[in-house]
Amino acid sequence: MTPSPPAPRSSLFAKYFLALFAAVVVPLLIAGGSEAWFGHHDQRARLNDLLDAEARASAAKIQDFIDGIRDQLAWTVQLPWSDSIDERRRLDVFRLLGQVPAVASLTLVDATGRERLFVSRIGLNRIEGGFDHSANPAFTSVRSGRAWFGPVTFHAGSEPFMTIAVAGNRAAVGVVVAEVNLKLIWDVISAIRVGRTGEAFVLDRPGRLIAHPDISLVLRADETATRPLQALRARIVARNGQAVSGRDITGQTVLAAMAQIPGVDWSVVVKQPVTEAFGPIYAALWRTGALLIGGAGLAAALAYWLTQRMVGPIRLLEDGVARIGAGQFDHRIELATGDEFERLATRFNEMAGELAVSQERSERIGRLKRFLAPQVAELVERTGDDGVLEGRRIEVVVVFGDLRGFTAFSARAEPETVMRFLSDYYDALDRVVSDHGATLTNFSGDGMMVLLNAPVSCPDPALRAIHMARDMQMSVQSLLLDRRVLDHRLGFGVGLAMGPATVGRIGSEGRLDYTAIGTVVNLASRLCASAGDTEILVDAVAANAVGGRAPLVELKARALKGFDQPVRVFAAVTGEGR
């Protein structure tokens, strides 16, 4: 009698309620936490790329502003100098002042460094002033066809200016030197926006503020007030150009990135308030928190409801599984819940039906293995159809093996010794036959019969049969070598033949065998009887099928019992000289 299961140590309701509640809430917590972490990481990466792109774009705009001034200046040093200033050169200079408001004054210097023309928006113009600029860094540092940018200076401690010198493509055309009012960069920097409230500013190499949307900060030239901006740039440099967080002049926490302006060695820094930059993440976190709270409440309600619905079906399933496990495969679990429990009960019922069929099939296969060779029974088991055992006529290779001197040995030896030897002998041959995919039809005393190409066809059965026969000889000879102390006159001979035969199951209702019938069976049996110890005798058909792929030696034709004419016989070479 099956013992009853022990009483539960805790409430099933409590277990399932906690499990279902945790199954919903824990993934929500993990998902919410991972989403927040990865979202912050991804947003930081996106902001880094965005701010870096904005900084580069801003640097490019300011670079275009400076390049535009440089290109305009280059037009004034195209013509070589003559003894006097021509009217055309003066008109070019005045036209440049009209087109480039940032140029406050402009000086044309010839190749010797002598001032030839000076034009200013706030001072007196000079023609052929003759001042020597040969020692001026703006003249000495500029190269042919290139531009030179001087350091930023603050006139009257307020407005930022920079000297730009441009040399002509030839030394004879001289150099143009211009004083540029950098206050006009405000038009460029004030138009730059990062997000809704983000902005940009420009610092020169020493860290002085050159351009800022709040132009009053630039005009005050107060280094103490601009130290937070210098600190931002220093942190970006320390992080190899990556966006960093810090505080700006107003004390607000911002995220900032930087790009360099080549030539003038200025730094363009773009910044965006952290609250605005991470606004989407903060909003997502609030939504995630709300979802977690709502999910927890819903999980508690669902866990309570589902747990209440689980107890009854689980008990019914438990009883049904116990019956099926006890072997009552005709028992069916009746559940009509319309959910997974009903489908589970259906699966259990299907499993019970399959187990019944499997049990019946196993019993049938077990009966087959009692009467058929193992290979044949396994074939029927694999295919699920014993139609392969029906009688048919095909070309097969029949192999017979038989011990020499076994009758005398069995008469002299103890019965236990004979049976132990036969058991080892059968095991050795069965392993070889299985390894070569052949069908062992039966053992008869000390003899055996093996089929190749039936009931399962195989490629090149004759060659496979010779290889199998060699392995059989080696296995049995090794076994006999260990048994020489029992009887040195024991030996093993093999005969094989190839030809058409009728194969199939044969026998009575209670006892069936799978075998082959035909002349080829008799021929293989006679060849085996004619073979001496260690010999493998092969008929002419099998020898022709093998060709030269296996060493065969033709022997003298032999007269075999049951055959009117002498039969051509070949011997397979199994060792040195044999």
TrEMBL record:
UniProt-listed Gene3D superfamilies: 6.10.340.10, Nucleotide cyclase (3.30.70.1230), PAS domain (3.30.450.20)
InterPro entries registered for this protein in UniProt: A/G_cyclase, Adenylyl/Guanylyl_Cyclase_3/4, dCache_1, HAMP_dom, Nucleotide_cyclase
Protein's GO biological process: cAMP biosynthetic process; intracellular signal transduction
Main localization of the protein described in the UniProt heading: membrane
GO MF annotations in UniProt: adenylate cyclase activity
HAMP domain sequence ranges: 308-360
Domain Guanylate cyclase: 397-528
Protein name: Class 3 adenylate cyclase
Species name: Bosea psychrotolerans
